[in-house]
Design goal:
The chain contains five helices and five strands; from the N terminus they run ααααββββαβ. With 172 residues, it is of the alpha+beta class. The chain has two domains: 5-111, Arc Repressor Mutant, subunit A; 120-161, Ferric-uptake regulator, C-terminal dimerisarion domain (Dna Ligase, domain 1, 2-Layer Sandwich). Strand 1 (97-101) and strand 2 (107-111) form a beta hairpin. The longest helix has 13 residues, at 25-37. The chain is elongated, with a radius of gyration of 22 Å. The protein starts with 24 loop residues before the first helix and ends in an 11-residue tail after the last strand. It comes from Acetobacter fabarum. This is Fur family transcriptional regulator. InterPro entries: FUR, WH-like_DNA-bd_sf, WH_DNA-bd_sf.
Length: 172
């Protein structure tokens, strides 16, 4: 049990955002989809933080995001600054946000542009060395998600395969 149990705060939930405040649902949904593609689990805190980031605007500091969230919340409270900073760091690490540092050493956050470079994926026949281009978006999504879980980004992928008995290799 915590020493100061009466000070423990419950996590904020989406229905605590004041009506008419918060970012557009479609913009938040696009960011949520980007987060899920990169393997980030979407919690209520992260959803509310995405609203605050979009509402605060580009080139904003963590404190400005916290103040924006505080104004947005009808009931309850804004998340703690520590929780906000930990999640901002996660979003920066995964490429959702961009962090710029000013001359006075303040961190400013903006939504990072979506990286949608096509991933070159090739099957290589183990017997002949023949390369077969594969355009399968579901495999690309899976590879990106697995790589992101390990803090990596996939640039290209080559999978060595062998034909099954009596089958020829075809392009995807």
């Amino acid at each position: 049990m915590l020493a100061f149990f009466e000070h423990r705060r419950s996590p904020p939930v989406l229905n605590q955002i004041r009506p008419g405040m918060g970012a557009s649902c479609s913009a938040v949904r696009r960011l949520e989809e980007r987060c899920e593609e990169l393997g980030i689990k979407m919690t209520d805190l992260r959803r509310i933080l995405l609203h605050g980031i979009l509402e605060a605007g580009p080139q904003t500091t963590a404190v400005e995001i916290w103040k924006t969230l505080d104004r947005m919340m009808a009931y309850g409270h804004a998340p703690s600054q520590g929780s906000i900073q930990r999640n901002l760091n996660l979003f920066v690490d995964r490429g959702i946000l961009r962090r710029d540092v000013t001359a006075d050493r303040q961190w400013h956050y903006s939504i990072a542009p979506e990286r949608r470079a096509t991933l070159a994926m090739t099957f290589v026949d183990a017997g002949t060395g023949q390369k077969i281009a594969c355009n399968a978006p579901e495999i690309v999504t899976l590879l990106r998600r697995v790589a992101a879980e390990h803090g990596l980004a996939v640039q290209t992928a080559a999978i060595t395969v062998a034909p099954s008995a009596g089958q020829e290799l075809d392009a995807c």
